[in-house]
Structures are given as C-alpha cells and as structure tokens.
Amino acid sequence: MRKLTILIILLIVGYMVGIWTFLLFPQILIVGGMKALMLYIAISAVLAAVPYYSLEATKRSRYFFFEYLTKVSKTPGIGISLLMFIIIGASLILYYSSLGITSIVGKGNTLYVALAVVLSLLLSSLILFRAKEKSVVLMGWFAILFLIFTLISWYIIRNFALSVAEKAVPVQFALETLTGNIKSTHLSITFPLVIKIILLAFLGLGLGFGFYIVFGTFLPEETDSRALIGAGYVLQLLIGVLATYIVVYSLAVSFPGTAILYGHATINKATGYIVKIAAALTEIKSMQAKTVLYLLMISVYLAGMTTFIPLIETAGHIISESMQSSRNRAISVALTGVFAVSLILTSRYLRTLFLALFFSFLGIMVAVETLPLILSGNILSKRAKLYSSVVGICGLLVGISITVRTLSLGAWEKLGIVAGVVLLVPLLLNSVLLKTKP
Q1: Which is a Gene Ontology cellular component entry for this protein (predicted)?
Q2: How many Å apart are CA 281 and CA 288, to the nearest integer?
Q3: How many CA atoms lie within 13 A of 161 on its CB side?
Q4: Looking at the domain that runs over 2-421, which CATH code has it been given?
C-alpha cells in the first residue's frame, strides 16, 4: 500500500507539473521575483484545499463521477462542460509538447508537428490501453522518469550556461540579470502579474478539469487525501522553481541581449519561445549546446505528457460513464477528439483562438468544478462547502477579468471568447439531462 501511495503522489506531481510550468513559472519570477513566488505559494496553498475536497467527495460517496453528479449535486451538465475543456486543454498540451520535440531537429513546420502529434498519441494509447487497471502505477513510474530527467537537465544546462558565461560577457550579464530578478525582493507586483500568478496556481494544481473528482473514485477508503495533495503540492512547487532555472539558463545562452523580455511576453508569444530557443541553441554548433537542446525539449515534452495522459484517462472515464461504453472505446473517442483539435492548432489563427478560449475560461471552469463540492449534500462539511464557494467566486471573477481584457484584443481572440461560451451551455441543460437518467 505504501508503494502504491508513493506512485499516486508521483502521478499527481506529474499531472500538476505540466508544460505551462515551464512557460509561465519563469515569467512570474523574472518579473516579480521573490514577492511573486511568495504570492504564488500563498495562493496555491489556499487553492490546494479544492483538490482535497474533490478527492474526498467521490471517495466518501463511493459513487462514480456521473453518478455523483446525477445523484448528489444534480448537475450532470458539469461533466459535459469539463469533458470539452479537457479535450481543449489536452490538445494544447499535446501540440506544444510536439512542437518542442520537433524543434530538436529544427523541424517546426506543420508536417513534422503533425507527425509528432500522431506518435505521441500512439505512445499514450500504448500506455493507456496496455496498462488497463495498472494505468495508475504506470503513470506514476512515467512521472518518476520525468522528475529524474528534470533534475539531470537542470544540472547539465546550469553547468553549460555557467561555462559559456565565463567566455561571453553578454551571457554573463543576462544570467546575472535574470537570476538577480528571480531573487529580488524589490520588484513591484502589478495587477496583470497577480492574474497570471493565479492562472499559474490553477494550472499548477491542475484545477478546472475535474481530474480530482474523477480520481477520487479510484482511491481506496484508507488513502490519506491530505498526504497525497500536500506532498504533490510541495514537489510541484520545487519542480516549478527548478524548471524556472532550466528555462532561464537556456534563455541567457540563447538570447543574452533580450532574454529579460521573456518575462513580459504574452502567453501566446511565450509559447513561441520554444522554437526560438531551439533555433538559437542549434546555431551555437557545439555538442554541449546540442545536449542542452535535447535535455530542455525532452523535459518540456515529458512535462506535457505527464499531464496529458492523466487528462485522457479522466476524459475516458467521463465518456465511458456518460455513454455506457467500454474504457478502451471511451479513451479512443477522447484521443480522436484531441487528434482533431491538435491538427486544427497547426493554424496560427485558430491556435490564437484556442489559447484565448483556454486561458479566458480557465478561471470560469475552476468555478464550475467547485459546484459539485458546494452541492455535495451531507458528504462534505459546511466548512468545505463555504471554502469551495469562496474559491469558485474567485475563479469566476478571474475568468471574467481575463475575458474582458481578451475582448480588447484582436478578432481571433474575440472569436475564442465566443467559442468558449459553448463550454457553459451544458450547465443550462441539467434539468433535461436529469430526466434522461433512469
């Protein structure tokens, strides 16, 4: 049982630490320094209660996910909304993970990214279909691989950056500036930075997808949910800081003159740095630079896959329950949906649309995720319901704030908001969906 608990903790860590950790964590620390880190720790520590209550809700009730939504919270539409958001979020993760891995060979064009998407889906299928009831164990071991690889990457990339800095003054200056910012206690915290920190906290804990509510159905009654979430939270925080230094070292070597600008880039532009860093490291033309390139991009790829696979397992569970189909067929449907959206993302304009949709509605989906906890009847305490209500309201306000800001941007961002409204339509159909249940 102890071994299983450790593997579950590592699975949760792998799920929490995703590709967005590598993209956003460095940004908030470069811009906000230690103040931003402390604020992130405080916000994510407060939010960490939601995964705990989510695990406990279905673990205590012993209901499956849709059973819980139908018999307890009376909100089956939430399952459909979360499923659509999972497909979108998983597709973005898969696309950018694939973009990173193709950058190793300097092939970031549509054909190679699409090929990487297909191969990644095949890898995911192999893990999910072959593992069956042992999928939790296998995903735990996959997370271990990621953690070990991240540690090795940090050590080698750090040594390379320091050795280059000794010979190149611009690289040394960039390193001193970036690491100085990270350690600074004097940088100001602006409202846009606070919003980005909250978004990172949502993503760092894996909120907005219903993962923990589904995962709670698999946990044995004797499992300590506090230990799972607590250990996962601490480890993902440490890996987040480690990922920041990995990216910072890579930036300093790749763009010594403009590396500091990464902290101020929009989320859309930050994702483009994956290819830019790869191109810059390729131009250095040394074995050490190639090693750094491989380690960085494989770390980003593994970070994406350790989040992607649990999300597909979650989507498969939701589809299996709602459609009364087998697990394999449900996962096949989820993977097909992700494949279709991932191919759409190869269009720059549609990619902008889906990024705007995802980040604008993330806070709103966190609010949606708290509804089954608020409407949990006697399963959760009044304190848990009140706590979930406060988090839900905060998530909703953050979502509305980002949506309003996004509406002031370009046409494709506006279309992303319009498309995102579809995510909320199932919430209006709860009464209809309840009537269709036996």
Answers
A1: membrane
A2: 9
A3: 29
A4: 1.20.1740.10
What's the pLDDT score for residue 121? 92
Helix, strand, coil shares, percent, the chain, to 5: 85, 0, 15
The pLDDT tens digits for 4-53 are 777 788 888 888 888 888 888 999 999 999 999 999 999 999 999 999 99
Residue ranges per structural domain of the chain: 2-421
CA distance 154 to 150: 6
Residue type, 415: L
Would you give the DSSP letter of residue 64? -
- Region class of 380: left (phi > 0), else alpha (psi between -120 and 50), else beta: beta
Q: For 265, which DSSP code?
A: S
Cα 302–104–244 angle (5° rounding)?
50
Q: What gap in Å lies between CA 232 and CA 16, rounded to an integer? A: 8
Q: Which two tokens mark 305?
A: 């896959």
Q: Is the pTM of this model over 0.90?
A: yes
Could you write out the DSSP letters of every residue in 394-417? Answer: HHHHHHHHHHHHHTTS-HHHHHHH
End-to-end CA distance of the chain: 37
203 touches 20 (CB < 8 A) = yes
Q: If we measure between CA atoms, which residue out of 202, 216, 204 comes closest to residue 69? A: 216
